[in-house]
Input
Amino acid sequence: MANAGGTRKLLMLGGYVQFLVTAVVVLFYPLVEVQVFTVSASPGLNLSQHACDHVQLHPVTLLYPLPVLATSLLGAFLCSSTVALLEQGLSGADFTQEALDEGGVWNMLFWAYSALAHALAVMLLLSPGDAYQGVLGVLLMTYFLCRITAPKAQEITITLENFYLLGYALGFVLVLYGMPADASSSGMRYYIVFVVGVIDYCLGVGHTWDRQATFDTVAHCRLFYIYAQSVCICAIYAAWNDQLLHLV
Output
């Protein structure tokens, strides 16, 4: 029990460390701004005109540091609340819908964190890119990842599981399709997409590898996910400032 308590304190401390590291990265590097745009039809467009010649782009510049810090702070809070849930009696329990309902707010906050982490990566990957396409890609990836990792009934429907995988893949493809084609740094951007996919894959495996996962396994998996996403976001932030992701 003493070893378990010490391990949990380290896990909770890790949440604060990742926030401090993120804050140092944000303060050390210059301000990062990303650009997205929305598209609308020009007034007076009719069916006899070529649509591509009559559209308006509405560029929007977004400040990157504030959502980065907010996401990292949420990650630190989740680390603390995860340890608290384990100490309140969920340690050793099976990962079932009933156990998940006991930590309902914790579960919702985790998926909010996942959506924010995906959004931060997609913002830079698509910059400059279509805002609606990016939002749709993030929502598809986050929602279907949530469904993939949800507690399973005794009888697993393979068709439904495949549908969830296809839904996640659709969001992934939307992000790939929206990346600027003329970026000299496209290779580096594809590396980032690959890393995001690997982190999501690890989250899925951590929830589904065992036929009946325990709450401890899921909690540790989600803590690893937070740490990995924090490292990924810091690396993206630094790469952008080092002009490894810029267009020419």
Helices lie at 2-28, 65-90, 97-102, 104-126, 131-148, 158-178, 186-208, 215-241. Residues 2-241 form a domain with the Rhopdopsin 7-helix transmembrane proteins fold (CATH 1.20.1070).
